[in-house]
Write a structure and sequence with these properties.
The protein is an alpha/beta fold and 490 residues long. It is 41% helix and 13% strand. The chain has 18 helices and 15 strands. The radius of gyration is 23 Å and the shape is globular. It binds nicotinamide-adenine-dinucleotide and adenine. Adenine (ADE) binds at residues 66, 68, 70-71, 251, 405, 410-411, 416.
Length: 490
């Protein structure tokens, strides 16, 4: 079967103030959310601590973050703390439809009378649907926008900033887009402008902040802050130690292979795996591949990370050195074109290629599609063979988007509990300071980071040593922490 592009079927369920694939999946979703809750002690503790006082009462929160079972626990925690919430996914392939259905239905709802949280997401959205669903998640009643955003990758933040700019300068919506994704965003913004020329102006007057989940989104925020265009205070959740040193590293260590295995069933032992990027995500990927018996090659641009990889015993090389030998290629760089279309065309036939970084341009998929005579043969959802004119082929997973969420279920609940506990603490901070803070990017204080870790110790049976007064005095620390300076790197 040769398909290009794949035909798309829109989901049927669109009634009510939500859009999900199939509401009848809600009971299944609810059972799995209950399992996830048992593995998310940080979020459950926040419900215990703050559920009574409802510190987020009055806050309208939009989330643009993978609509998974773990995110469902985050959403219901925000609601339990008093917030009004609307949600969309930050990736066209990452939604778990049963989780979305359970959230739309709510604990007390029924298919005839859903009573849950307005969620706008399904697995395998088109790009136009993606931006429409994000748009819907930003629309609260009375023509109002959110007060706070939970962003993952920065698309919600981008939509508001670009939308506002275009209200002053509509011609910018006619600019030539650099990608299909940007084309779809500009198309959506044009529709919004035609319908409501002051929509984003109204939105930003009551927008008090954003908490950003991932490395790539944080890069975008820093860029805006540097240019002076960032409109709101932003909390960089990614760089809480209990996020990037756990989710990015240990999360990917488990979910990368889950994605590759579900997609291809390939035997990893004995294969040559090339990991592009040896940051937090790349370190987790390399470790799991080696653990399963692969021979791992690392590529890096940063001499420090390259040296770290070498000291861990990995061969550090250039992608081009291993094109004819690599069996599995993984990008984890947050960069563009870590693997170019030409490099794809020179790979050993049958090589598996995937990306675990945030967007779909780490591997030049757009360039791959433009190769004259190339054919796309769909194997199953999110798995394609791309056959070159000479008959050789590569196996591309999730169309070059996050393989762990596109081809599997993302990270396990326990590690997401640490990430999302930071998210809730960030939302609490942004809401508490909503009239005072100015635009800029910051991280949560180390004390809170340590608290997030502390909330996850019991579940693992960890017994922590406590400093006595003499020891605390000797180290110049408070016995309750913080235990490290802000510059400590872990
Ligand atoms: P990081 O900055 O710690 O690591 C990226 C590494 O890639 C750096 O060491 C950098 O030097 C290297 N690099 C950059 N360009 C390169 C190139 N062209 N070739 C080779 N190496 C290059 O970032 P991270 O926290 O590891 O995140 C990496 C990506 O993964 C980001 O896009 C992030 O948003 C995403 N992420 C994904 C998940 C997931 O669940 N899939 C989880 C966390 C983060
Ligand atoms: N990012 C990685 N894994 C995830 C998950 N399970 N849920 C939400 N975001 C994620």
């Amino acid at each position: 079967m040769s398909l290009d592009p794949l035909p798309h079927q829109s989901p049927a369920t669109t009634d009510g103030d939500f859009r999900v694939k199939d509401l009848s999946l809600a009971d299944w979703g609810r059972s799995e959310i209950e399992l996830a809750e048992r593995e998310m002690p940080g979020l459950m503790a926040l419900r215990e601590i703050h559920g009574g006082a409802k510190p987020l009462a009055g806050a309208r929160i939009t989330g643009s973050l993978h609509m998974t079972l773990q995110t469902a626990v985050l959403i219901e925690t925000l609601v339990e703390l008093g917030a009004q919430v609307r949600w969309s996914s930050c990736n066209i392939f990452s939604t778990q439809d049963h989780a979305a259905a359970a959230i739309a239905m709510g604990k007390t709802g029924s298919p005839g009378q859903p009573r849950g949280v307005p969620v706008f997401a399904w697995k395998a959205e088109t790009l136009d649907e993606y931006w429409e669903l994000l748009d819907l998640s930003l629309r609260f009643s009375g023509g109002r926008g959110p007060n706070l955003i939970v962003d993952d990758g920065g698309d919600a933040t981008l939509m508001i900033h670009l939308g506002l700019k275009a209200e002053a300068d509509p011609a910018m919506l006619d600019q030539t887009a650099e990608s299909e994704d940007e084309t779809a965003l500009l198309r959506r913004l044009k529709m919004i402008r035609a319908e409501d020329p002051k929509r984003w102006f109204r939105t930003v007057t009551q927008w008090y902040g954003v908490s950003e989940e991932t490395t790539t989104g944080v890069h975008r925020l820093h860029k805006m802050a540097k240019e002076g265009s960032l409109l709101v205070p932003a909390i960089n959740v990614n760089d809480s130690v209990t996020k990037s040193k756990f989710d990015n590293l240990y999360g990917c260590r488990e979910s990368l292979l889950d994605g590759i295995k579900r997609a291809t069933g390939v035997m990893v032992a004995g294969k040559i795996a090339v990991v592009c990027g040896f940051g937090d995500v790349g370190k987790g990927c390399a470790q799991s591949l080696r653990g399963m018996g692969a021979r791992v090659i690392v590529t890096e641009i940063d001499p420090i990370c390259a040296l770290q990889a070498a000291m861990e015993g990995y061969q550090v090389a250039k992608v081009e050195d291993f094109l004819d030998q690599g069996d599995i290629f993984i990008t984890a760089t947050g960069c563009v074109d870590a693997i170019s279309a030409r490099q794809l065309s020179l790979m050993k036939s049958g090589a598996i290629v995937c990306n675990i970084g945030h967007f779909d341009h780490e591997i030049d998929i757009a360039g791959l599609k433009r190769i004259p005579g190339i054919r796309r043969v769909n194997v199953k959802p999110q798995v394609d063979r791309w056959v070159f004119p000479d008959g050789r082929e590569i196996i591309l997973l999730a169309e070059g988007r996050l393989v762990n969420l596109g081809c599997a279920q993302g990270h396990p609940s326990f590690v997401m509990s640490a990430s999302f506990t930071n998210q809730v603490l960030a939302q609490l901070a942004l809401w508490a300071e909503r009239t005072k803070a100015s635009p800029g990017v910051r991280v949560l204080p180390r004390r809170l980071d340590e608290e997030v870790a502390r909330l996850h110790l019991d579940k693992l049976g960890v017994r922590l040593t406590t400093l006595d007064a003499r020891q605390a005095d000797y180290l110049g620390l408070d016995a309750d922490g913080p235990f490290k300076s802000d510059s400590y790197r872990y």
